[in-house]
Amino acid sequence: MSRDFLKEVEEMIRKEVEYAKELDELSNMIDHPVLQALFKAIAFDSRKHSVLYTSALRLLREEIKALTEEELKIISEKVRKHIELEKEMIERTLELMKQTDDPKLKLILASIHEDEVKHHKLLTDIEKNIASKYGVTEEELWDMVWKDSPWHGTPGG
Q1: CA–CA distance from 82 to each of 9, 67, 89 (Å)?
Q2: What is the average pLDDT score of the chain?
Q3: Rounded distance, CA 38 to CA 108, Å?
Q4: Residue 100 — left, alpha, or beta (φ > 0 → left; ψ -120 to 50 → alpha)?
Q5: What is the phi/psi pair of residue 100, to 5°?
Q6: DSSP bridge pairs for 112
């Protein structure tokens, strides 16, 4: 990756952290609960973006080891559970939005609902793609050592 690209990502990290700090300060200056919550939520997302940018830098700069079979099992179990929880939260936020005509409440609930939909999609993508691509099972490891080796796992034959 080019040096300019890496510098740009580093700059985005800095900007996101700075932006989050400014929004936190703004939310502390006002006493309106909805606006406070929205500014804090956006600040939280900016911190999240800085974490994601940081992980992108690590991906570009470091060798990332494969997940173990045990890690894949844990991820699979936990992600499956959270996919179901997010699905439930999507349904519940829709129901809550139907129960109110207050535009301020609808704004808050719609924001939460959009996040739940994004979380559900991200978790489903993780379940379908990332875990299987980065994992190496015990069987695959032994196949690499024994089956695919001309010496079948022994030094030099």
Answers
A1: 30, 20, 10
A2: 87
A3: 8
A4: beta
A5: -135, 150
A6: none
How far does Cα 156 stand from its chain's mean position?
Answer: 44
Structure confidence by residue, pLDDT tens digits, 47-104: 999 999 999 999 999 988 888 888 888 888 899 999 999 999 999 999 999 999 999 8
Q: What is the pLDDT of residue 65?
A: 85
Which is nearest to 40 in space by CA: 23, 64, 58, 59? Answer: 23
Amino acid identity of residue 86, one-letter, is E
| pTM of structure | 0.75
Nearest alpha carbon to residue 76 among 121, 126, 38: 126
Domain regions of the chain by residue span: 1-64, 66-157
Helix (H, G, I), strand (E, B) or coil at 135: strand
Q: Does the pLDDT of residue 157 top 50, yes or no?
A: no
Q: Which residues of 102-139 are buried (b: 16+ CB within 10 A; e: fewer)?
A: eeeeeebbeebbebbeebbeebeebbeeebeeebeeee
